[in-house]
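Sample pair:
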Amino acid sequence: MSYDIKPWREGTLAENLASAGVSRRDFVKYCAGLAAIFAVGTPEMAHAAPAQKAAEELADKLGAITKPNVVWLQLQECTGCMESTLRSGGTTVEEVVLNLLSVNYNELVMAAAGEAAEKALEETNAREHILVVNGSIPTKDGGIYCTIGGKSAEQVLQESAKNATMILAVGACAVYGSVQAAKPNPTGAVGVDEIIKDKQVINVSGCPPIGEVITASLTYILTHGKAPEVDSEGRPLFAYGQRIHDSCPRRPHFDAGQFVRTFDDAGAREGWCLYDVGCKGPSTFSPCPIVQWNLKSGWPIGAGHPCIGCTERDFYDRFTPFYDKLPNIPGFGVEATAEKVGLGLTGAVAAGVAVHAGITAARAAADRKATKNSPMAAFGDNAVGGENNSLNEDATSDKQNSEAK
């Protein structure tokens, strides 16, 4: 459904949405989606209130907001994060809300340019506002690699952060520098929290993040008046509180030892686990399997491509080549290996899955012993002869004895 988007007038967000043709029913439906996102990584919130009640409460809080001041900077980046935010499918409620919230300054989508745009930025910076940043900040050679209005990206960021009440670094570039910060990092690219040290920076990571996660992060701040709880990387727990691996629809194939070996094999056609062709889901924290992209129409693993770990810090340096398996670390079973990698890369937030990992590792080990031609050999490719062959013979003998009985 399309809506008549207009600049923010006097009154509340609910009143402006109504003037744009957004019904209460549509707004509550939108808020229900946000409430569901808030509950993704924090299971205890899922039972805090019935879904409809939670949506109504969120709609009341968000609808009562008067015009917020938002500065949305585009620094050293590719515009992918803003595209992700806006291209969620048609002219949606999300687009109306974002246009209303970010009307003060966003050089990528605002009509003003040149001196008019600079004036809008200066006027908004002079009063309290929410600061959203896309893109990294080059620090080498005086920051000449990204300048806006004759100022370096670092100067623009410092000026915009001075009166900011909340700061969101949106996208892998703003969080830690992303691809341009990869070795040898010729521009000296860094993330926002390497420049802004005196205020909390909320990291909405991903290359790009899911559009709904961006809007949910903004909505949380607007409705709660404070930053959401974050993990050790400064990411909102409601969105980054669990691994892709834990909610992946291909997880049963992982536990069963069914892996894609090449992208055109039978396993790929059957939708088996992509771990063996480089999937970083076991060490990546993101709601991709649950929220998905483009109005829940799909996501990378659902389309048959392994996760590249883009929500994790320094993913380009640590996870390339992308089609190689995660580093092997000695441990009990495949799941334990993946688990240790995840814990090592992302910190204590992952500790809660360790018990589950041990259980599934034991189950996987038992399955490997009992199945003669198990694809679990993909993790060693040495299931012929020696100890593995002996285990297979034992399993076959056990099966024959059972059938004889």
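Residues 115 and 404 are 88 Å apart (CA to CA).
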